[in-house]
Design goal:
Blueprint: E1 22-25, H1 38-44, E2 50-53, E3 64-65, E4 70-72, E5 100-101, E6 109-111, E7 114-115, E8 118-120, E9 126-128, E10 131-138, E11 150-152, E12 155-160, E13 168-174, E14 177-184, E15 192-197, E16 200-201, E17 212-215, E18 218-219, E19 232-234, E20 237-238, E21 286-288, E22 291-293, E23 313-319, E24 334-339
Parallel strand pairs: 1-2, 2-4, 3-5, 4-6, 5-8, 6-9, 7-10, 8-10, 9-11, 10-12, 11-13, 12-14, 13-15, 14-16, 15-17, 16-18, 17-19, 18-20
Antiparallel strand pairs: 21-22, 23-24
Length: 341
């Protein structure tokens, strides 16, 4: 039996009203932008606007959203010993702290940012291509409803239940690299459900969740304890025996044979080390809508994007003279840019 996951749930089209405005936020000295403070930009923006949060050595204050907005940063992992190619000439990141998505923010998107925690109190929120160093809380506030939220293509610590009286159904969690405890929903397990598809779970920790479908994932020491039978598993890989047999699941697989840099990331970036190596048992081991795909974060129709590069043009080479001689009429500047979709 193969679980069918609606392909439309994996497709995301960012549509903006023709009258929507783009705002710049930059807190670097000497830079002229619309705002130096992100919450001020959020307050001033109209529903449907886009806020570009530019790279800075200093973190921005965390915003609280009560309207539909798109917030776009510059990505992350630019200073790894082995950096990813064609990222950003400016190696600082867009750190926006711990944002809240409250009532009215449905349809909002945050992309390419460095984030601490995320508090989801609204439905149809999308978190994509972010580096989230702490938990995402679906249904953080009492009695809130955060249905149909999408969490994709992030490096993320984990998800944990918020209020015991909140609800979060049909969570769509795919193509993420989890570097923390993963799913911790024990305090509200019957009110949270959805899909985990094509993720890498790298942290050995007991997961507490029910009513989820796990498909095409790769686990380090899968451990669902008493919750194992409360979930469905298809075409997953683990290095222990913590998943059910059958349904295309592979157990006791050596993860050094799966990833290019699992035990040692030498020579790879923090996210690049989890690409599949030649001959990996994860290659072609997954299935989505009866189509064969690779397992893990780099598989499927929406693979993980190195460094969380946003889907806008990015300048990865910028060469500007340090000074211009008096009376000079020309100045040579070198710019190389790319767009990652």
């Amino acid at each position: 039996m193969k679980k069918i996951f609606p392909l439309c749930a994996l497709l995301f089209i960012l549509c903006q009203n023709a009258s929507a405005k783009i705002w710049r936020v930059n807190n670097n000295l000497g830079v002229s932008a619309d705002f130096t403070d992100l919450p001020a930009a959020v307050t001033a923006a109209a529903a449907g606007d886009t806020i570009m949060v530019e790279a800075s050595a200093s973190a921005y204050s965390a915003p609280t959203l009560t309207k539909k907005l798109v917030i776009i940063g510059t990505g992350y992992f630019f200073t790894d010993a082995t950096s990813n190619p064609k990222t950003q000439a400016n190696t600082n990141v867009s750190n926006i702290g711990s944002p809240y998505f409250n009532a009215g923010s449905a349809g909002s998107v945050v992309e390419g940012c460095s984030i601490a925690a995320v508090y989801l109190n609204e439905s149809n929120i999308t978190l994509e291509r972010n580096n989230i160093s702490n938990y995402v809380y679906p249904g953080f506030t009492a009695n809130s409803i955060s249905n149909n939220d999408t969490i994709r293509q992030n490096v993320i610590y984990g998800l944990v239940a918020g209020s015991t009286t909140s609800k979060a159904s049909n969570l769509l969690v795919y193509n993420n690299i989890f570097n923390g405890p993963g799913m911790q929903f024990a305090s509200n397990v019957n009110n949270i459900s959805g899909y985990f598809i094509n993720n890498d779970f790298l942290y050995s920790y007991a997961a507490s969740c029910a009513n989820f479908t796990f498909q095409n994932n790769i686990f380090n020491s899968a451990n669902f304890g008493s919750y194992l039978s409360s979930n469905s598993f298809f075409n997953n890989i683990t290095n222990n025996t913590g998943l059910p047999t059958g349904n295309g699941n592979q157990l006791s697989v050596n993860l050094d044979n799966v990833f290019v840099g699992y035990s040692s990331g030498t020579g790879f970036s923090s996210d690049g080390r989890y690409k599949l190596k030649t001959g990996s048992p994860a290659i072609g081991a997954g299935s989505l809508n009866s189509v064969t795909v690779d397992c893990g974060a780099y598989g499927g129709p929406a693979p993980y994007i190195l460094s969380g590069m946003p889907s806008i043009p990015s300048v990865y080479v910028l060469t500007v003279p340090s000074s211009v001689p008096s009376g000079a009429t020309n100045m040579n500047i070198t710019i190389s840019s790319t767009t990652v979709h």
